[in-house]
């Protein structure tokens, strides 16, 4: 079956490289990825997939499905394709999405013989309002057996690890304008509310876990130095190692915000300015199978997966078994969200790493289809994990 997968990969190599380069050259921000979404769906439709555009009501999301005539598990691959402001594809979602579409194309060539269903989901806006959150809430993954997605990184393959749960909170402080020199006593300084918030959070940092992260910016700091500002705001990301611990940490941060408002006489309003993400729970049995197949392909060095940032795939890991490994695109380590990372995503080295990730995902899917006991073990682990 490895030989067949490699043959089918060769058949699709040119169009996958072309897809990767096209999306790289046409970067689009989250929920604006019209060209990228069309490019993916055009390729998938040309190869026999049924396409649902504007999936779950999201303009640039899609669902591409190919169902064999034999019964079998449903395997889904997740395609991302949003870019970053000014940097372009500094997170490599051009090649991430290409890898998922490529895995879908190759598995499609095999399942008529094996059975089952292959799905490629176009999931916009991972960097902001992650579409995977909406899809999870809509119940998209309730009848999907396995989900896989491989992300580009620097020098080595990295096994699927975990991510931090994250809440994006905007703190708005309202005060009263006054002349800062002539009548400051008549004003209520909204910027004092924001600064006191920062000081409160900084004082709290000594008493938080090493795995927690709280980081923010002043989004609006006033209009002029001689006017006491009546409105200021700050945007924060609050992260913790699990969704349960995040809820506790977020409440502590919100208490700091309330205390700042009380201390400065301002009025406070809190809101989420982007979606919150759950932590990623990697299915270990599924990950072990993927890593085994990477080694069968000749990959010798695979790094352990750690806890990396936050991602909306975490929400899916609460719905069904998931892995989110990383594949190399460079001969050296790279800094994510950089121009250099984007440039590396269209190199020959990147296409080598993408090929290995695609073939390993396909080989893993094939094992799951033909080995009912393996799928049972993966699902049992998922159920046990989420009972805790």
Structure, explained:
By secondary structure, the protein is an alpha/beta fold. The protein folds into two domains: 2-163 and 278-385, Aminopeptidase (3-Layer(aba) Sandwich), CATH 3.40.630; 165-272, Alpha-Beta Plaits. It is 42% helix and 18% strand. It has eleven helices and 14 strands. It has helices at 2-25, 34-46, 93-114, 131-137, 190-204, 243-264, 284-296, 313-316, 339-344, 348-370, 372-385; strands spanning 50-53, 62-67, 74-79, 117-122, 146-148, 151-153, 157-158, 165-174, 213-220, 231-240, 267-272, 302-303, 322-323, 326-328. Strands 1-2-4-3-5-13 form a six-stranded mixed β-sheet, with helices on one face. A four-stranded antiparallel β-sheet has the order 9-10-8-11. The protein has a two-stranded parallel ribbon with strand order 6-14. Strand 3 (74-79), helix 3 and strand 4 (117-122) form a beta-alpha-beta unit. Helix 1 (2-25) runs antiparallel to helix 2 (34-46), helix 1 crosses helix 10 and helix 3 (93-114) packs parallel to helix 10. The radius of gyration is 23 Å and the shape is elongated. The model has no long low-confidence stretch (mean pLDDT 95).
């Amino acid at each position: 079956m490895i030989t067949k997968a490699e043959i089918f990969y060769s058949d699709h190599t040119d169009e996958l490289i072309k897809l990767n380069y096209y999306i790289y050259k046409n970067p689009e921000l989250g929920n604006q990825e019209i060209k990228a979404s069309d490019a993916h769906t055009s390729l998938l439709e040309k190869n026999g997939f049924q396409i649902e555009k504007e999936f779950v009501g999201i303009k640039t999301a899609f669902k591409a499905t190919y169902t064999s005539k034999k019964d079998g598990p449903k395997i889904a691959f997740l395609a991302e394709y949003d870019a970053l402001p000014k940097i372009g594809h500094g997170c490599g979602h051009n090649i991430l999405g290409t890898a998922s579409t490529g895995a879908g194309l190759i598995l499609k060539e095999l399942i008529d013989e094996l059975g089952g269903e292959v799905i490629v989901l176009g999931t916009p806006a991972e960097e902001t309002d992650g579409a995977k959150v909406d899809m999870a809430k809509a119940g998209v993954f309730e009848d999907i057996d396995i989900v896989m997605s491989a992300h580009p990184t620097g020098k080595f393959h990295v096994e699927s690890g975990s991510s931090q749960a994250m809440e994006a909170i905007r703190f708005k402080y309202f005060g009263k304008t006054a002349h800062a020199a002539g009548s400051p006593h008549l004003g209520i300084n909204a910027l004092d509310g924001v600064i006191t918030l920062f000081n409160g959070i900084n004082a709290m940092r000594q008493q938080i876990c090493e795995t927690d992260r709280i980081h923010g910016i002043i989004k609006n700091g006033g209009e002029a130095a001689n006017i006491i500002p009546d409105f200021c705001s700050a945007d924060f990301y609050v992260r913790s190692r699990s969704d349960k611990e995040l809820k506790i940490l977020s409440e502590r941060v919100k208490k700091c915000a309330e205390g700042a408002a009380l201390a400065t006489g301002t009025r406070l309003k809190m809101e989420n300015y982007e979606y919150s993400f759950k932590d990623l729970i990697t299915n270990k049995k599924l990950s072990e199978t993927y890593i085994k197949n990477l080694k069968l392909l000749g990959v010798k060095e695979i790094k352990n997966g750690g806890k990396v940032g936050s991602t909306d795939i975490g929400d899916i890991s609460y719905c069904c078994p998931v892995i989110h490994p990383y594949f190399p695109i460079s001969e050296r380590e790279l800094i994510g969200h950089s121009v250099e990372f984007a440039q590396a995503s269209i190199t020959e080295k990147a296409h080598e790493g993408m090929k290995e990730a695609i073939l390993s995902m396909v080989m893993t899917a094939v094992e799951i289809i033909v080995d009912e006991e393996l799928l049972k073990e993966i699902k049992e682990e998922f159920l046990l994990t989420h009972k805790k």
